[in-house]
UniProtKB/TrEMBL annotation:
It catalyses: 1D-myo-inositol 1,4,5-trisphosphate + ATP = 1D-myo-inositol 1,3,4,5-tetrakisphosphate + ADP + H(+). The keyword Nucleotidyltransferase does not apply. It comes from Oreochromis aureus. Signal peptide: none annotated. GO terms for cellular component: cytoplasm; nucleus. Belongs to the inositol phosphokinase (IPK) family. GO terms for molecular function: ATP binding; inositol hexakisphosphate kinase activity; inositol-1,4,5-trisphosphate 3-kinase activity. Residues 98-125, 146-159, 212-224 have a biased composition (Basic and acidic residues). InterPro entries: IPK (IPR005522), IPK_sf (IPR038286). Residues 160-174 have a biased composition (Acidic residues). This is Kinase.
């Protein structure tokens, strides 16, 4: 079991106490302790240990569970799939959905009779069983192999970062090109700070200028003008070496084999050469040494670039992968202020550690703990929280004279050509509020108080066609897919969300801030699972001593965000997923026992 630690100084890491959740009752009391990364217990959670151990592969073989787009009618239509294969799968999904719809029509009378006479819990169970029966009845005509290929042949996550790496190669140019509007917006306040900094004769650091008197409260709020390694362009890091040179080999073997050990000082590199050489050979050796130093440096970067970091949602170009388990996010004053407050709030264990600011080229970045650091083949899900994703200002602007956004109009048409009004079609543009509001109403945001923005599975394939999900049952199905019905993972998430719920109740930050567009990032691998609050770019403090309840619907002027409505929906859905996964497990136990 991998027990790699989080970087939190106050971190409390504890193993999940599976027994805290009664096997089939997910609403039972859970640990009130604060979890950060919850270790997924290897202990079996059901009594049929032997069977379960054997049946575990069959749980994992939810690989044969059809791709999500095929589980829920209509979802396969999303054109925003990440690769060609996904769109192929979507076509298959449509065909399958038509067939399924017909079959469902025929069975609906029988199904309704059966379902309406039951309690919600029984209803869910019966529904699940019916679905299972349908699939196992041989009438599910999807080519299971091709489903499998679809789900397991998505883009590798490293490809996702290629665009960003190109930008990395030349910070300044990248800044100008990528997401120019957003960059300028986010960094405009930083520009102001930079000017102040230049005027400051004491050479005060950027961080102290930005953070002012809050500096002392910060854990490591130091400026760190990232030094690129000499003679090194990041573009060269894409080069791969199949087998190391003997000298590198020697170094590798004498090192602790961690990638950081490759970041050698020149003294260390010198050691690989023998003494007693003449001046000529020393010069040659020196050149050789330098080239090896460069080589090793490149290797180091290459290795660090192969980290599993991925940006699942949000603005492309906003992030840079950094060294030492950190990611850099483009500076926003609003977000930096929030993170600053959060480091002194009960919510701190649920937020990536904030390490202050750093400049790279012309731009300023927020240094954040990399939540994927230490995870092996992480599986990630981004859930955008709240009953709305627009700020009230956006609505006010839309009424007065908001600029029309043709990009948003196009995104809208792509998802649903009939969505824009005749007027919007004519002007080929919509206001930002109109677009965001439409996104909220066509997803589960308005109804459930959150939506799944995207999921990345352990093979690196990314799926974003969850964004049209509207019902809790669909969310539950998505959670089962995302976790591959693994009970330990589901329980870890459930437990973590309950702990978050407690922390939110005690959080002065939460009471006094309107939290818009913030996400919960679910991350797990084979041994750990956790949920984190991220993205505070649209989270703003309330005026005076106003406080929010977060669990009531929004009405204009109230500034309520419905964050707790979303959290409660998620907890309920996770509980349902745990129930379903338990039944699945029980059934496979039974099947195992019946079969000789
Ligand atoms: O997810 P899609 O449908 O692409 O829409 C995005 C998200 O709503 C972004 O919100 P978030 O940052 O919460 O993900 C929002 O950014 P902001 O509202 O933060 O600016 C973008 O607005 P523009 O950045 O204006 O394009 C908008 O285009
Ligand atoms: N601290 C972090 N560690 C790891 N991944 C992160 C972290 N912060 C953000 N991400 C990744 O980046 C994505 C976008 O983050 P977010 O803060 O929402 O960006 P934006 O403000 O551009 O919307 C997330 O979905 C997640 O995949």
């Amino acid at each position: 079991m991998d027990t790699t630690d989080d970087n939190h100084t106050e971190g409390i890491k504890m193993e999940i106490e599976n027994q805290q959740i009664v096997e089939n009752d997910c609403f039972s009391t859970l640990s009130d302790k604060t979890h950060q990364h919850l270790l997924i217990s290897e202990r079996p959670s059901s009594s049929c240990r032997m069977v379960r151990l054997r049946s575990r592969p069959s749980l994992q073989s939810t690989k044969s569970f059809p791709p999500y787009s095929q589980c829920i009618g209509g979802l396969g239509e999303d054109e925003e799939s990440d690769d060609q294969h996904n769109s192929d799968m979507a076509c298959q999904a449509n065909a399958t959905n038509v067939k399924e719809d017909k079959r469902e029509e025929l069975q609906s009378t029988e199904r309704n009779e059966e379902l309406t006479t039951r309690s919600p819990r029984d209803w869910l169970k019966a529904k699940w069983k019916l679905r299972r029966k349908e699939r196992s009845g041989g009438s599910f005509e999807v080519d299971a192999d091709s489903c499998e290929r679809g789900r397991w042949s998505g883009k590798r996550r490293v490809e996702e970062t290629e665009e960003k790496e190109e930008f990395d190669d030349d910070d300044d140019e990248g800044c100008a090109n990528a997401e120019g509007k957003h960059w300028r917006g986010r960094n405009s306040s930083f520009e102001k700070v930079r000017k102040e900094e230049e005027e400051d004769e004491d050479g005060r650091s950027t961080i102290s200028a930005v953070e002012g008197d809050t500096k002392s409260s910060r854990e490591t709020p130091t400026r760190n003008d990232e030094e690129e390694l000499p003679g090194m362009t990041e573009g060269s890091t894409t080069q791969q070496w199949s087998s190391p040179h003997p000298i590198l080999s020697k170094l590798l073997h004498s090192s602790t084999s961690s990638s950081s050990s490759l970041n050698l000082s020149s003294a260390e590199s010198d050691e690989v050469f023998s003494e007693g050489e003449d001046a000529g050979s020393k010069r040659k050796t020196f050149r050789k040494c330098r080239s090896w130093k460069t080589f090793l440096t490149m290797m180091h970067w290459s290795m660090s670039r192969q980290s599993s970091w991925v940006q699942l949602a949000g603005h492309q170009g906003n992030f840079q992968v950094s060294k030492g388990g950190e990611v850099l996010k483009l500076y926003s004053e609003v977000e930096a202020n929030c993170l600053d407050c959060l480091m002194r709030d009960p919510l701190r264990p649920f937020v990536p550690q904030y390490h202050g600011l750093v400049t790279r080229g012309e731009l300023c970045y927020i240094r954040l703990e990399d939540l994927l650091s230490g995870l092996k083949r992480p599986v990630i899900m981004d859930c955008k929280m709240g009953v709305r994703t627009y700020q009230e200002d956006e609505l006010i602007k839309a009424r007065v004279k908001a600029p029309l956004r043709s990009d948003m109009y196009q995104k809208m048409v792509k998802m649903d050509p009939s969505a824009p009004s005749a007027e919007e079609h004519a002007q080929k543009g919509v206001t930002k509020w109109r677009y965001l509001q439409w996104r909220d109403s066509t997803s589960s945001t308005s109804t459930l108080g959150f939506r799944i923005e995207g999921v990345m599975m352990e093979d690196g394939s990314i799926q974003r066609d969850f964004r049209k999900i509207q019902t809790l049952a669909q969310v539950t199905e998505a959670l089962l897919y995302f976790t591959r019905s693994q009970l330990d993972t589901l329980r870890a998430y459930h437990s973590r969300l309950l702990a978050l719920s407690d922390a939110l109740k005690n959080s002065p930050f939460f009471r006094t801030h309107e939290v818009i567009g913030s996400s919960l990032l679910f991350v797990h691998d084979h041994s750990k699972a956790s949920v984190w609050m991220i993205d505070f770019g649209k989270t703003t403090p309330l005026p005076d001593s106003q406080e929010l309840r977060h669990n009531v619907p929004w009405s204009e002027g109230s500034r309520e965000d419905g964050y707790l409505i979303g959290l409660s929906s998620l907890v309920t859905s996770l509980a349902q997923a745990i129930s379903v996964a338990s039944w699945q497990q029980e059934e496979s136990c039974e099947e195992e026992q019946i079969s000789p």
